[in-house]
Structures are given as structure tokens and as C-alpha cells.
Design goal:
The complex is a heterotrimer of chains A (427), B (165) and C (315). Chain A has 427 residues and is of the alpha/beta class. Chain A contains 13 helices and 19 strands. Helices cover 30% and strands 23% of the residues of chain A. In chain A, α2 links the parallel β7 and β8. Chain A is globular. Chain B is of the alpha/beta class. The model of chain B has no long low-confidence stretch (mean pLDDT 91). Classes of the chains: A alpha/beta (427), B alpha/beta (165), C alpha/beta (315).
Chain lengths: 427, 165, 315
Amino acid sequence: MKIHIKNGRLIDPTNNIDTRADLFVAAGKVATIGKAPAGFSANRVIDATGLVVCPGLIDLSARLREPGFEYKATLESEMLAAVAGGVTSLACPPDTEPPLDEPGLVEMLKHRAKTLNLAHVYPIGALTVGLAGEQLTEMAELRDAGCVGFSHADVPLPDNQVLWRALQYAATFGFCVWLRPQDGYLAKGGVAHDGEVATRLGLPGIPAFAETIAVATIVQLMRATGTRVHLCRLSTREAVAMVRAAKRDGLPLSCDVGIHHAHLSEMDLGYFDSHCHLLPPLRSARDRDALRDGLKDGTIDALCSDHAPVDEDSKLLPFGESEAGATGLELLLPLTLKWALEMKVPLAQALARITQQPARILGLDAGHLSEGHAADVCVFDAEHYGKVSAVALKSQGKNTPFLGIELPGKVRYTLVQGQIVYDAGNG
Amino acid sequence: MTPALPDPETLCAGLVRELKPHITADTALVGIHTGGVWLAERLHAALDIALPLGLLDISFYRDDFDKTGLHPQIKPTQIPFEVDGRHIVLVDDVLYTGRTVRGAMNELFDYGRPASISLAVLIDRGGRELPVAAQYVGARLEVPLGRMLVLDRDENGKLRLKLDA
Amino acid sequence: MRNPQLNDEGALQHLLTIEGLPREILTHILDTATSFVGVTAREVKKVPLLRGKSVFNLFFEPSTRTRTTFEIAAKRLSADVINLNIAASSHTKGETLLDTVDNLSAMHADMFVVRHAQSGAPHLIASHVASHLHVVNAGDGRHAHPTQGLLDLYTIRHYKKDFTRLSVAIVGDVLHSRVARSLIHALTLMGTPDLRVIGPMTLIPAGVEKLGVTVFHDLKQGLCDVDVVVMLRLQSERMRGALLPSAQEFFKYYGLTPEKLALAKPDAIVMHPGPMNRGVEIDSAVADGSQAVILPQVTFGIAVRMAVMSILAGN
């Protein structure tokens, strides 16, 4: 299908483009930028006047709840949510049921996603069998099946020797290991940031050093093994400082922060709002501000949605009993734009955090609009303000603290491999 | 047309004269907060009553709790004498619907079984909604519907009657 | 954020926590309780205020003592009382908290008295029930025990009169204590200038100074010249969670003995929410001594709960 996206503000951080230009798509690829290719006759013209045209967004963490948790959400609903949010590629963590520790499961997931013909799905494989923290998985086999990295999701890996061996094994093949830094013992029983708010509300706390101690351990192990590591969902200001120092030392470290943590703090828990029950917990305002600054100065490479749809019943419980997590695929763009506006970050630099950088971390040829490469495109209205509502969200998870809040940015069209997979005008 | 209000001091003196023949060493006087207590204090002194004065706050015995809730200020209830077998004179400032007196009697009966209760009021304004009657009445007065007749006390302890909207 | 305890007119709709309540409401409850003390002292201890109303005791966490005092208070207001020991029934059948609440609401309840092991459970219930229902928090996790805080406040007012001149020490397992948190909120609201918490570091929660207290780890220093000593109960589980080595060592350094009490003011009062662990947090000589007001606390507790229920029911 030949598509002409005309008169949009083309922003491509990778290629350093931010200008009014037309985009021409043919045979699933970006044909040309600026001038139409010779003899080009568009089947569809998209008028992008007043809109931004950028690479399709890349989300480093979205739980699709399949296999195993289909009562919370299904691949169909969450993939529709992804493209409605302008996300054309997403990585999913291995904590499905069963966990993604076997090539067969990975292949099945990739196959399911492919038949839906919506966004690209990049599974992150389990680091240990069953995520039990004892035995290494067949990482090379899993890579061949389609895994782009290996992680332990939110499951603690208390045996540092196993962690060390896993890092060594991954380094052998040049694989990237994704780790959420949290010491399982220090965090045990905690549901909120261990501080003033948790004390007032009488909630068991997770101290900040549960994260920083884990970061320190991981960084030290990296020095010994040289493994490429991606730290998932930072939450403390000290961790940001530690990452900054490790990067200065030239360690192959990258990291991300969840969109909710870039905006909210422990204060937002209010009267036990279980929509704010997240992992890692929402920490102090100072921590939140350090995350926002870290994103701006590039210490934190990417923003991700950490999409975790939770059924209503699991949230309508006392805070400590409620399930942690927030829906996020459709909020990735709005919350990135909100952060950029508040921090006075140029739009191109902000979009890099959800296109160019995630692509680099995943090792994908994606997140850019280059002639001859796949046409994964997002066309959005940066000026539009819309209220987040359960009805409007396509995800089966309606669980977000931003319900009822007006956020900037509305996706009008999403293209994956040159196909229009989402058109806001047609619902 | 607003009627001219009588002087409570005169009415009080009149009540004293009416009550005197019926007071014995065992008679108890109980005032209903707030206006009834002021009046009862004056009667108690003037009639030289032996037993200490009883004070009654009927907040817990009102019949309109569901509509108006608990009163923000509850005054102390003190019944410093045995109620069983006692002849009690209940004192209030204005007798209107009779509901206050009904509540006061219920409360007194939670303290014991009196031999008799009689009622002394400064003003009977009619408008009864219950079968309650006062044995000793200072004056009968017709008060327009919707207006409240209120007993007031100035800094020197002098009693005044007011008509509120 | 709107205070979920107050209705649109700013009157008390639920009692969930002392934190955030206007001082006038606290004072109103204390003053009303005074009148109820008078009622409980006479022979007919009942008043007809809540006649025809149904009070449901929803105790998800078992407690005979607290449940009994609420039951007595409700019956003295002439209410019908239904006791539900949820721990043993529907909860184990897998019924959610809100489903249980909905079922009970359908049985024409007017008031729920809720005790739950999870902080925030009464808040969740209150946000869910119909507007005519009132929720009283009888203790949720570590968060709050507002009627206890109020009766502690009443007790202190009874013996010491003026909050603004007092020095109060709360001793023991503050980390896990909803009683401590409620009392801290109550006393800071009433303007108590010197509020102290005393305990080993393992039992003092993070950031507690932000609530308006000074932290002491040395009991002798902390008790110096205080007017009120509140001893908290130490549960045996604490010895198992790597928080404390033994009850003996705790008693030696944090138990209230006559010698330690002598460091406080000579007319200092000793309080305890009960039940007491004699020989763990408090010595028998002190518990049975002249400065202890632990039994009056219980009496005041009934009057305070009568006041809370009647104020709520009338709003």
C-alpha cells in the first residue's frame, strides 16, 4: 500500500530531523522523505497538518498477560492498546505463567503476536528456569527463538553467585541482561516507600537502600564480567547517581524509568489509593525530581510504560492486599509529553527517550524513519488535551492514578510496516 | 401582630406564690436546660427548697435525633437526690408542643420511679402536639406560628423574654 | 483532596482516623463523652438515642475486648448489635471484602464498626458504602485506632486538663502501633508541645519525627519530667521477626518499673491500651500502683465510643 503522509512536522531524533516534511511509504518501508519517489501514486493520503510525524514508539516493558493471566487481559486487547498509544514495538517481561524460559513458549508468543498484525513483540527471556533463581536457562536457544534479552522480572534473585554466573553466561554470547534492582530480603513485606507517608498510613515500607544496594551489587558484578546490563524502573535518586558514575567509568549500563514514576511520588497515595500501588513504589518527591532530571540529562536512557493491566477486583482491596501495577501503553506518549513540557525539554529530545533510545537498548533497527527501512510510524497531535477515561482506554487494564486527568497528546495514526494499524478517526 | 411580652420577673413571682403551698421538705425541683434551669434556680432560692436543685439536659431523649442529630453542646444532667418515691416539680420556661417535657419525663424515669411529677412553666403558648399539661402557669400567650419564644438572662441575672424568628 | 470522613456540610460521616479532623470535632466528641460518663454512672445506663438502629461489628481481626466495649456502648445507646466474626466465615470462603460489606448493607445496617489487619480497609469500605451508612474504624493494621486515641485524649484531659502544657511519652513498639499513631495525631492536634516516642531503633518507624515527635532510644532520658507515660503492648511475634532478641532484654531496657517511673514527674499518670503483658512492657508494681489510670481508661472508652456513635448517627 502506498501512503503519503503530508505536511506533518517530521521528528526523527536518530537522523536529527525536526522539520516540516512529507513522508512517503511503499511496500512496508519508508520510500522517501521530502519529495515523492518517481511515479509515486498514493493509495492513501494522510493530512498531517498540525500533527507530529515520528518513528513508532518503542516500549521497553509491557505485560501482555499471555500466557497465563488471560482474565486480566489478552494479547488482542493489549496489542490494540499498544497501537492506539502509537507503540509499534514493545518488549514483554518473562513473568508470564508459565514464565518464558523455553523456546517453545517464546515462539508461540511471537507467533500469536505476528498473526494479530499489530505491533512487534520482543520477548525478554527468563534468566533462570522458572524464574526460581537456581538454574540458568538456555539463553542461546531462547535468543534463537526471538528473545532480545534476559531478565528476572520482579522476582528476587537472592543468590548472588547465581546472578554472577548468569551475567557471565550472558556475556559469553554478548546478551543483554535486564535487571530490576531490588534486594528481595530488604523489600520483603513492603508495599510502599519506607518513609514519612508509609509511616503515617501504617504501610510496611520498602527502604530506598533495597534498590541502591542491588544497584551496587549489579555494578560490581558488571565490572568483573563486562556484561551489558539494562536496569529496569529506577526509583531512587541515589540509584540515578550511581548509574551516572558507572556510565562515566564506561560500563555498558543503560536504564529506564516508568512513566508513572516520572510524575508521581508517595504523596499521591492519598487515602490509600491502590492505583498508586506500584513496583517499585512511588518514592519521595526528591527521588521523583532526581528521576526527572536524570531523564533530561540522559543518565536515564528511556521512559517506558511498565504496562501492567490489573483487573478491577484486584485493585478494590485494602492497599497492602491489592495487586501492584498500572496500565500504561496508552499513556506512554501523553506522560512523556507532559514531562517534556514541565521540564522544558525539546520535543525531539523527549521523543528520543521513547524511540531512538529504546531501539538502541533492544538492539533493533527501529525507532527511526530512514529511507529503505521499515515504516513504523506514529502520527500524533501534540496540542490535543484529553481526559484519561476507563471508557476510552483500549487496554483491559483501567488501573491508573491518572484516571480523570487531562493529558497532552493524541495519537491519530499508527503504521506498522507500512500498514495503518490504528486510525483514530475510525475508532 | 406581635403581642406585648409580659415581664418574666413578675411571672416568676406569681409562680412562687402558686407553688408555695405545695412545697414540702421532700419536694424536689428539676430544671430543664437551658431556660428552665435559670427559672428553676430562681424558684429554688425563692421557695427555700431543702433538696439540691436537679438539672436535666434532654439531648439524649429528644424525638428528633434522626432529623437534627446530636446537639453540639450538651449541658450536664445532675439529679442529686433519690428519684424513687419523690414528688418532683419539673420546671421549664416555655411549654409549646410538649415534646421536651415528654423527653424530660422519660429521662427522669430512667433514674427511678417518682411518686408524682408536676410541671411549672413561665409561659404556656399552646400548640400542644402531645397530651401534656402544666399545673403551674405564669401566663398563657399566643405566639405567631414559626416564631420562637425564648427566655433570656442579662449580666445581672435578670430574666427577659424574647421573640425570635 | 476531600476528607473522606466529613460529609458535604463538614460534619463527621465516618470515624476512620484522627489525622485531618478539625479540632472542634475532637473537642465535641470529648465533651459529649463527658455527658455519657454521667449516664454510665447511674443505674439505668441506657439512653434511647440509637433505638431502632443496627450496629454491625465487622471484626476481620479477632478481638474480644474491643468488640465487647463497642457492643456495650452500642447497647447503652439502645441500638441493636450484630457481631460478625468474619475471620471465621465468608472471608475464608473467598468472598471479597466489598462483597461482604455489600451483603451486610443489604441487611439494613446503619453503622459498621470495622477492625481489619490491613491499613486502609475502613477507608475502602467507607468509600464504597451508601451515604446513610457510617463506618467506625476499630483498628486497621498499623494505621489508626481513632476511638482509642480519643479515649486516651479524654483520659489525659480528665487528669491533666491542659494539653498545651504537657510532656507525653509513648513507649514501646511504635513501628507496629496504630494506637501510637492515633494518639500522636490527637495530641498534636490539641497542641501538646512535647511529644516523645521511646523505643529501640528497630521499633521506631522511618520519618516518625515528621509527625511531630522527638525520638528517644534511652528510656531514662525519654521519661525525664514527663506528665504522661503511655506504654504500648509488645507482641510476641516481634521476637521472631529479627526486631528484638527477647522479652527479658526488652523489659530490662524499655519496661516501666517504679524506678524508671520515678524519673517522670511525681504526679505523672501511666496509661496502657491493654491487654498488658506484665513483666514485658510494664511491671506489676506500676500497673497496680497509684499512678496507673489503666482501668479508668476502659470506663472512659465506653463513654467515648457512645459519643462517637451518637454523633455519627445524628449526622
